[in-house]
# Entry
Amino acid sequence: MINYILFFIDPGTYYNTITLTPKNYTLTTLATELETQLNTLYDAAVMEFTVSYNLFTMKLTVTMDDKTPGNTHTFRFLTDEELQAGEYNSTPIANPKSANGILQNTGTSSIYSEASPYETNVIDLHNIRNLYMTSNLGNYSVLSNFNWTGSDIIKKIPINVATGSILYDNVIAPFDMAPCGGQTLRTLNFKLVDAFNNVIDIQNHFSFSIIFGLRE
# Structure
């Protein structure tokens, strides 16, 4: 997992972020972690959360035990669209880097309460399927449908191995070539990013080769 933050509000009164511990999760351990982090937001005498999981549907259910008189508390997990629109504390967040992709929490969020638990969509624990190498070498000539343009992508790298494995990728077709002529560069810049242009922390375990060729 790359993105660990969920934006949680008790509408009108309480804004907070939930930061999941950075690591790889199973459905079971994700449920435990989310429950732990939710219960750090309130005193146990006021409110408690339980997060259960269903291995058949691959969904989580967040149930709230509201111990206040009248059971007045409600909660929402804001989607990326709402965060970008400024619904979190009236402050737009252009790139939330949230864990909404894991919960499949998109569009318009609903308000939940003790009587109405929150059930996620199907949990996506493999929400990064490709890496992209970007560089100032590629003439900014790539077309993409990414919100961040993606015109500097020089290589798409599919993630096709298990967690903890070494990922290899090779040039397998001539159209993997990218034009780089007509420019003078003193410094070459390279980044590995996900589909949201978030830089991937690879802890220096990374190497690559570039082959230059003349085009007839």
Observations:
- The chain has two domains: 5-119, 128-216.
- The radius of gyration is 21 Å.
